[in-house]
Structures are given as C-alpha cells and as structure tokens.
Write a structure and sequence with these properties.
The complex is a heterodimer of chains A (about 290) and B (about 300). Chain A is mostly helical and about 290 residues long. Chain A is about 75% helix and about 0% strand. Chain A is flat. The mean pLDDT of chain A is about 90. Chain B has two domains: about 1-55, no CATH class; about 75-305, MetI-like fold (Orthogonal Bundle). Chain B starts with a helix and ends with a helix. Classes of the chains: A mainly alpha (about 290), B mainly alpha (about 300). The interface between A and B is large, with 103 and 100 residues.
C-alpha cells in the first residue's frame, strides 16, 4: 500500500468514528441486557442468604459459597429431575424423528389414496391452540393409564405435525434417481428409506431433533397436568415448585435455574446452525 | 394426478386377487409408513379436538364419569362470569402491547447488528439467541430476583437514574407489564434473527442505487429495506400474536394470575377451570373461544409456511 492510500483510509476511519462509537456502545448495551440476567443469577447462586437481600445489590458476591448447590443436590430431588428431563427429552426426540421421518417419506415420495386430503388435514391442525387439546389429551392419557408415568410424558408428544412438514419438504428435494438406483440394486422400500433417504436427510433430521429436544427440555404445561409424583418431575416443573416453596430464597432458585439452563447452552454452542434453522419451524419457543 | 396413475396401475394388476393388485399393494405400502404417525395423531390430536368441542357442551369435574349435557350454557356463562371480561382484556392488552414493542425493537436491533461497521455478526446472533434457550420456568426464576422490590437489581439500577420503586409483579397496575418485560427478553431473539436474515438477503445494489439517488440512511431503511422485508415482518407479527394470546408459563410461575387477576390470561383461565376448579365445560368453552381467535391468525401462518 502506498502512503497516500493509508492516509485516505485513516481519514475515512476518522469520519465514521462517531458512528462506530454509537454502534458499539449500543451493541455493548444489547450484550449486557441479553446475557446480564444469566450472569447475574450465576453469581447470585454463590451468594449467602444475607447478601441476597443486601442493598445495594451485590453484582459479584463478596464471598462465594457452595451452600445453594449442595442444598438443591442433597435436600431436593434435583438430580432426579435432571435425569427425568434428559430421559424424556431424548426419548421423545428419537421417537418423534423416526415416526415423523417415516410419514414424511411417504408424503414426499409416494402416491397413495387420500394423501393430499390427509396432509391438508394435518396442516389445518397447526391452527388448533394447545390449550384446547389439553383437557381431552389429559383424559385420554388417564384412560390409557399413563398418568404419572414416563409414558404419559413421552407417548402423547410423539406425533409432531410440523416435523412431518419440515422433513417432507427436505425429502422432496432428494433426486428420484438415487432411489431408483438403490431399487435396482435390490433394496426394499424400507431399505431405500433407511439407507438412502435417512442419511441424505441428516441436516433436516438434526434441525428437527434440536427443535423437539429444546421444546421438551423446557415443556411445563404437559408435565404439570400429567405428573403428581415429585420424583417424576422434570426441571421446568421442579423450578415452578421451587418458586412456590422457596419464594424469597433466591440463592436456591438461582442455582436451580442456572443448572437447568446450562446443558442447552452447551449444546447450543456446538450446534448453533441447527438451532438457527429450527427457529423458523416456529416451535422452539413453547 | 393420483386418480389417473392409480387407474393405470389397476388395469396392470387386474388379474390377481384384490390384495395382490399392484395399486393396492403400493397404497398399503405407503400406509405402513404413515401408520405410526397417524395412530398417534388421531389419538392425541384429532380425537382430542372433537372431544374438546363436545366437552364445551357439558358440565362437570375432570374425574366425573357422567357429565350432563348443558348445550350452549357454558358459552352463556362465559359472558356473565365476572372474570371472563378481565381475562379477555388482559390477553388483548398484553398482545397489542407486546407484539408492536417486540417487532419494532427487534427491527431496530436488527438494523444495529446488520450495520456495515459491525464485525462478527454471528457473535451477536448467538447473544440474542441465548434467552430463547431457557425454559419459561427458569426465565421466571431469573427475573423474579431481578424484578424483586427493594433488593432487586433492576429496582436498584432504575433508582440510580431517579425512577421510583416499581412493584413489577405485585402492583396490579404494573404486573402485566412486568410479565411483558420478561417475555420481551425471552422472545426478542426470534424476531431479531428472522429480521437479520431477511435484511442481509437484500441485494447490496438496491441500497447503492438508492444512495446514488440521494437517499439518506433513514430513507434507505424505510423505503427500500423494510418494504422488502414485509413477508418476514408479517410472519413475525403472526407468530408473536399467536404466542401472546397463548401466554401461560411465565404467568403461572411468576404471578399465578395475580394480583387480583391482573395477569390472568385466557390459557390461565382454561388451566385453572379444568384442573383446579373442576369446571371442565367452562374451560373447554374458553378453549373454543381461543380457537376462534387463533384460527384466522394461524391461517396466515399456514399460508406463509406453505409458500416456503
């Protein structure tokens, strides 16, 4: 670069400096607003009871104590809630992806009587608010004898219309030639699905997995109506219970809330792309 | 299309018994793939839908074996019930507040992150996504401490700039806005990320052309960028409205509808009448009303999804 170029560049930078300062100050503010609450409860989870209600509030506690964590892990069935949440979220995710993929394959690649009517019907059910289905779904679960059990949490969640919709759209883009080639090689129908369609649909399957896993991890209403037994509680339900039992003991609620969020934060850091794609499926936020 | 190809297949395999015909086998084969989904879908979606409509015409407790038929009586009761109106007004007030606030702030923040000076846009995208990851229950816990009177950190920070103490969750005049604040934080990332994607998809030449024609930054934004983002903004408004009308989790954990029903929403009403007060019919009737509110809005969502 010649000196003249450098000077020009420098001048240009000076000209946009005020704008850059404003932009970055606002961005810093945005980062504080979005991440601040997480950081604040993280630091608060190490506070002692009396520093929790000190005025002015301590952003960083003078003294770090582990009491809140030892309390929720030893005195409350928190680790059990953690386990339940993982179990239910994983099983629902695996089950939904399989069941949805099977259906999506038929809707994307096969012709059968009533296909378009069925698909239209499925799409129409997106319009039904979950709260309307809550009561009869509860009664059916009760009738099937699944209340207060893992099955009651898992089975009713397995048919996900948006999942079929998402996978069908992706599978439609897979070229027919690949299927034909596999069939000539002697693949059965299920073989084509399992060996050709599923591997090629991996990105869409990953996106759906993330969406389902996140919404199960955070689901409150269904566990709330289905479960009685505290040992079967999932994390959101446990947190809601803590809120009513430990109103003002913010150290305990902060530690519990933080621990419940950490796994998803970690998964997010590794699989950001699929989280971002899953956003438009419209199901991430329950 | 289906009919014609089905016909040609039938003539091919006409000779064998019904189950052996090519078309029949092809159909059965496809049905085998959709069967697991359809069974669950019928039992937990379609069935409950019609049952819910039927329940809205009955009276009784959840566990009552026999629920007497009362016709449209529940719908009449809804109009005379003292808290129905409050619940509708709350949901309406909340929706018409949170949707415009979220969409406008998200648009502004998307312009901020989308600014050409900003590097590492992925970092800011991740930052605004973070609140979306927490459950409503965890978010409620986080904010109940921040919003606490006296020793809450927000109360303290607002006090520094001279704002008097606000009882965000226990003052009937403020509680709905306390909930709104929490939900804004929780949901804003959705709108920002959608807007950002749409904004960065607008071809740079269009901005250049407008600038050459003498448009300033504000004019480029309002006359070029935002009009091109219209479908995405519509989708945002639709989704925001659907969620706002179904607000429950945050209210359930933070205020449980209180104080004095200041944060009682439609879904809160449904949950409590069905599972607490033993008035399943009233709850179902309210659910049907919610359906009638959501359906036209969702129809737009379905159209938008169908176009993509």
């Amino acid at each position: 670069m010649t000196p003249i170029d450098l000077r020009r560049d420098w001048r240009k930078r000076l000209r946009i400096l005020p704008q850059a300062v404003v932009v970055y100050v606002l961005l810093a503010l945005l980062v504080i607003i979005m991440l601040g609450p997480y950081l604040y409860i993280f630091s608060s989870s190490f506070k002692e009871t009396y520093t929790l209600i000190s005025i002015p509030p301590q952003i960083i506690p003078e003294q770090f104590v582990w009491d809140n964590y030892t309390y929720i892990l030893s005195e409350l069935p928190f680790s059990l809630w953690f386990f339940n949440t993982i179990l239910v979220a994983v099983l629902v995710t695996v089950g939904t992806v399989l069941i949805d993929a099977l259906a999506a394959y038929a809707f994307a690649k096969k012709e059968f009587w009533g296909r378009d009517v069925l698909f239209g019907l499925m799409l129409a059910t997106i319009m039904i608010p979950g709260a309307l289905l809550l009561i009869p779904a509860f009664l059916i679960t009760n009738w099937l004898g699944l209340l207060n059990s893992y099955g009651g949490l898992i089975i009713p969640a397995l048919a996900n219309v948006l999942g079929v919709f998402l996978l069908r759209q992706f599978m439609q883009t897979i070229p027919e030639e690949l299927e034909h080639a596999a069939r000539i090689d002697g693949c059965t129908d299920f073989g084509v699905f399992w060996r050709i369609i599923m591997p090629l649909s991996a990105p869409a399957l990953a996106t759906l997995s993330i969406v389902v896993f996140t919404s199960q991890w955070n689901n409150l209403v269904w566990p709330l109506v289905v479960l009685n037994d505290k040992d079967l509680y999932t994390l959101p339900l446990g947190l809601a219970l803590l809120r009513s039992e430990f109103q003002v003991n913010y150290g305990i609620t902060s530690a519990a809330a933080f621990l419940s969020v950490v796994p998803l934060l970690i998964v997010f850091l590794f699989l950001q792309r699929y989280f971002l794609e899953g956003l438009t499926v419209g199901a991430v936020k329950g | 299309m289906t009919a014609s190809s089905g016909a040609s297949q039938t003539t091919q395999g006409q000779s064998g018994p019904f189950w052996g015909r090519a078309a029949v086998r092809r159909n059965l084969n496809a049905y085998a793939f959709i069967l697991p989904f359809m069974v669950l879908f019928a039992v937990f979606n379609i069935g409950p839908f019609f049952w819910a409509l039927w329940l809205s015409l009955l009276r009784g407790d959840l566990v009552d074996q026999v629920k007497p038929f009362v016709g449209y009586q529940n719908y009449v009761s809804l109009t005379t019930d003292s808290i129905t109106l409050k619940v509708f007004l709350n949901s309406l007030q909340y929706t018409v507040s949170v949707v415009p606030i979220a969409v406008v702030t998200a648009l502004a923040l998307a312009f901020l992150i989308g600014n050409k000076l900003v590097r590492f846009k992925d970092f800011y995208r991740a930052v605004v996504f973070f609140p979306l990851l927490a459950s409503a229950a965890a978010t409620a816990q986080i904010w109940s401490y921040i919003l606490a009177p006296r020793y809450g950190v927000l109360t303290y920070l607002l006090g520094l700039v001279g704002v008097p103490e606000i009882y965000w969750l226990s003052d009937p005049d403020w509680a709905l806005y306390g909930i709104l604040l929490v939900e804004w934080w929780r949901g804003i990332g959705f709108h920002i990320i959608l807007f950002l994607a749409a904004m960065l998809g607008v071809p740079e030449e269009l901005h250049e052309a407008a600038r050459i024609d003498g448009a300033n930054a504000w004019q480029v934004a309002t006359r070029v960028t935002i009009p091109l983002m219209r479908p995405v903004i519509l989708f945002s408004v639709v989704m925001g409205t659907i969620w706002a009308f179904q607000l429950f989790d945050t209210v359930f954990v933070l205020t449980n509808g209180g104080p004095v029903h200041a944060t009682a929403t439609i879904v809160w009403y449904i949950y409590n009448h069905a599972f607490r007060y033993g008035q399943v019919g009233m709850a179902a009737a309210m659910g049907v009303v919610l359906l009638l509110i959501i359906m036209p809005i969702s129809y737009v969502q379905m159209k938008v999804l169908g176009e993509r």
